[in-house]
Model the fold of this input.
Amino acid sequence: MISQDTIDNHAKLIAFQIYDAIEQKKQNNEHLVLGLATGSTPIPLYQELIRLHQEANLSFENVYTFNLDEYCGLSENHSESYHYFMHHHLFDHIDIPKENIFIPGGEVEPIFLKDYCVGYEKHMQELGGLDIQILGIGRNGHIGFNEPGSSVASITRKVELHHVTKRDAASAFGGFDFVPTHAITMGMKTILSAKQIYLMAFGENKKQATKQAILGDITDELPASFLQHHDNVSYCLDFDIYTK
Ligand code: F6R
Done:
């Protein structure tokens, strides 16, 4: 059973860490680079960040954000695009400068795609790299849209979506056949380059993949298991991975 109190506590804790990191950077006249996820999992975190902005004067003026992924073929104002999601759930409610927001483009022409993906990585690095990366996890162990089979050395690129990912998105798109077949995602190497990572997983349907990611073998069949290579990951869960 999903415990709303546990989820809210995780959201508060991560939001406070972000608050603290932003404030520390501000004191040094520096900026913070935040890697963000979409989906249902980070929504309570985004609500908490909005609350801190509204009630505790948290400003995002010195923050840059890079989103993990976007569906190919969706315009920015499509209601299921991650552009729409991020504006609706976070950006429209905080004071982040529009030019500091980076989300992979879902409508980049195929001939420009390779350069576009290299540019996304380059821009992130020029800004100092990801300070904090927020992650959810798919039932098939994907993070971002690094589906089973993704290499640990992968960078931002176009990928084909796995059938489990499409099944999970089917109701939002009005059926499996209407889910986009491809997406652009940051790679595993990109994600692992973050200085600090928070992976959130809520609900029993995430338990198996999360348990395998943390306790199982490191394998490209479960890309989240590559996080075992990173020495600064916090797993924020509402279930016990040590029980069946
Ligand atoms: C989304 C993303 C995905 C989701 C994952 C879980 O930007 O990167 O990896 O985090 O599919 O989705 P939810 O939170 O909807 O269960």
